[in-house]
Design brief:
single chain; alpha+beta; three-stranded antiparallel β-sheet; 4 helices; 17% helix
Length: 196
């Protein structure tokens, strides 16, 4: 089964910051920006990116959503998506193919812009026969939920493992950092596992 990303020469590290020292979003963002800059300077590192939940670690932040201009689903039948908060260059670094539209701009990565990138399954399931680019969805993750514009569609990534079926609904959203747990992904050139 295709995992939906390229695992070759990929190092994944989970990092948890103490909430007592990193209460403000700006401190968390600065920490990870500096960390990624430092890691990029290591010889052999081709690229660095991060997200809140790595592939094969199970679902991320599953939450319901609505589509602008459509009736809400009946009670108890909410549309649910698995939201992944990511850093810049995540899709190209993980070799997750862009199927339609675009990825996030630098401005969207540094400012709280209301844009989302969805995967192929969400596009097929909720926008059959339609172009999802430019449509707006509201992901219910905050107290003040505002619609976000769909700017891209990427290939599906297996959230569990290659032996289980792919998670059916998945969305990616660039939002202000709200968690202090991140998974760093580092891709190097020709790295080999250390001998046992």
């Amino acid at each position: 089964v295709d995992p939906g990303f390229d695992p070759k020469n990929l190092l994944t590290v989970r990092i948890s910051l103490p909430g007592s020292r990193y209460r403000e979003d700006t401190r968390v963002v600065m920490f990870f920006q500096q960390l990624m800059t430092n890691i990029r300077s290591i010889p052999g590192v081709r690229d660095v990116s991060a997200n809140a939940f790595a592939p094969f670690t199970g679902p991320g932040s599953a939450t319901n959503f609505t589509i602008e201009g459509r009736d809400r689903p009946p009670a108890g039948q909410d549309w649910v998506t698995d939201v992944r908060v990511i850093s810049g260059r995540y899709f190209p670094m993980m070799a997750i193919p862009l199927r339609q539209g675009r990825t996030f701009t630098d401005a969207e990565l540094t400012e709280a812009k209301r844009v989302v990138i969805i995967n192929e399954t969400l596009a097929r399931t909720y926008f059959p026969g339609e172009d999802p680019i430019g449509k707006r969805i509201t992901i219910n993750m905050k107290d003040d939920n505002q619609p976000s514009e769909i700017v891209g569609v990427v290939g599906d990534v297996n959230a569990w493992n290659v032996a289980r079926s792919k998670l059916r609904r998945n969305g990616c959203r660039q939002i202000k950092v709200e968690e202090v747990r991140w998974v760093q992904h580092v891709r190097g050139c020709g790295w080999q596992p250390a001998p046992s």
